[in-house]
Amino acid sequence: MADLVTVSGLCVDVRFLVMGPLQNNAYIISDGAGTFVVDPSQDAETILAALDGAPLDAIVLTHAHWDHVGAAAELRAATGAPVVAGRADAPLIEHPVDTGTSRIAAPCAVDRVVGTGDVLGIGSMQWKVIETPGHSKGSICLFCIPQFGNHADGLPVLVSGDTLFAGTTGRTDFEGGSLSDMAASMKKLAALPDDTVVLPGHNQLTTIADERRTFALFGDEPE
Length: 223
What we know:
Low-confidence stretches: none
Oligomer: single chain
Helix content: 10-25%
Radius of gyration: 16 Å
Strand order of the largest sheet: 1-2-3-4-5-6-7
C-alpha cells in the first residue's frame, strides 16, 4: 500500500499518495470544510482508505491521460463525488482513445467542464482554473491563495498536473501536445507569486521561484 505523505506550510491541507507504474502523485486536498482528490491514478480502495471516511466533494482531473484518471470512474461510483475536467480533455475522459500514452483508461463521466476564468469552490476554498495546453489540449492547473485557504499564514498552491514539474515541463510529443502551447502556458504560470508551491503530477514538489531560476521554462533571462 502506498504511503500517505503530508505536506506542511501550505494555505490548505495537502496529502498525497505516490501510485502506479509511473509513480503518479494523487493528491487529497482539504480545508476542513471540503475535500477533493486530484488525479486518482489507480487503486480507488487505497484512496478511499486515505480519506478515512471523510466525504469527498470533487474529483479533479488535470488531463485525460490514463495514468491520471485510472481510478476516477470507480472513485466517482463509490463516493458520488462529481468529476471536474478541462473542456478540451473532457470528451477523451468520457470516451477514451489511444493518444500514444501506452494505455487507455476506463471511461468516466465528467460532471463539470471548466476553463480559464472559472473558479472551483470546495468547502471555503476558491480555486482559480488556468487552462494550460501543451501536454494535452485540455490540461488545466488550479491555483489557490491563502485568503481562500484554511491557513492564512500558509503558502499559495498550484496544482500543475503534467504541465509543470521540478526543473522541466510536461512532454509535448503525445497526440494533442504542442511545444508552442506549452510555451504560452509557461507565460501564464510565470505570472504567479514566487512563493507558490507547485504540486506536480509526478516527482517532487517545487515552487514558482525555483522554476523561475530554471529560466528557460518561463522564457526569462538568466540572473
